[in-house]
Amino acid sequence: MARQVRAEQTRATIITAAADLFDRQGYEGTSLGDIVEHARVTRGALYFHFAAKEDLAHAILELQSATCRRLARDTEVRGRTSLEALMRLTFSIARRSAEDPVLRAGLRLATGGARPRPPLSHPFTEWTDIVAARLLGAAEESDVQPDVDLDVVAHSLVCFFVGTRVVGRSREPAARQPRRTAEMWQILIRGLVPVTRRARYLSLAARLERETAPV
C-alpha cells in the first residue's frame, strides 16, 4: 500500500512539473530531461509512469477535463438559474487557472493543436457543449433574448473566454483573469439578457469578480 501511495505521489509530481513547464515554455520547448530535472525524479521514475511526452500531455488534458466537469457540477446548485451557474463556472475556472498549472497547461496544449485521444473530447468541444446546455436552460428560464442563436452564443462565449486567457498569458498575470471574466460578462449580459433582468446579472458579475479576485 505504501509503495502504491508513493507511486501515485511521484506520478502527480511529474504531471505538475510537466504542466508548469508546458505552461511557461510550451510543449515543443520542453524536453523530458527538463521535466525530470524540474520534478526532481529519475528518468526511470518518469518512464515507469509515462512512455513519452505525448502521454504526459494526454494526462494533463484528462485532468483538465475532469476538473472542468467537476466545477460544472459544483456550480449547479438548487435555486440558481442556469445563467448564474454558467457565470459561476467561468469565474471558477478563471480562479483555478490562476492557481493550477494543470489548467493553464491544458489551455496551452489545446490552443497549440494537441489532439486528445478518444474517448476524450477536445477541451473546446467539451466546453462548448457545457455552455450550450446552460444557455438552453437560461433560454427556458427567459434569461436570454428569444431571438438569440444559442449555438452561436456558446461558440462565441468559449472563443471570448479562451481568447482573454491566451492574450493575457503573455501580457498580464493569471491573477488578472477574474477581472477579464467580469468584463466579458458585462458585454455579454448587455447583448443577451432582457433589459428587465440585466441589473441582476451585472451585479452578480461584479460580486463574482470580488469573490474570486486574489486576496
UniProtKB/TrEMBL annotation:
Domain HTH tetR-type: 8-68
Molecular function terms from GO: DNA binding
Source species, domain of life: Bacteria
Keywords: DNA-binding, Receptor, Transcription, Transcription regulation
Keyword match Cytoplasm: no
Annotated DNA-binding residue span(s): 31-50
Protein name as annotated: A-factor receptor
Taxonomic source organism: Streptomyces viridosporus (strain ATCC 14672 / DSM 40746 / JCM 4963 / KCTC 9882 / NRRL B-12104 / FH 1290) (Streptomyces ghanaensis)
Upper taxonomic lineage: Bacteria, Bacillati, Actinomycetota, Actinomycetes, Kitasatosporales
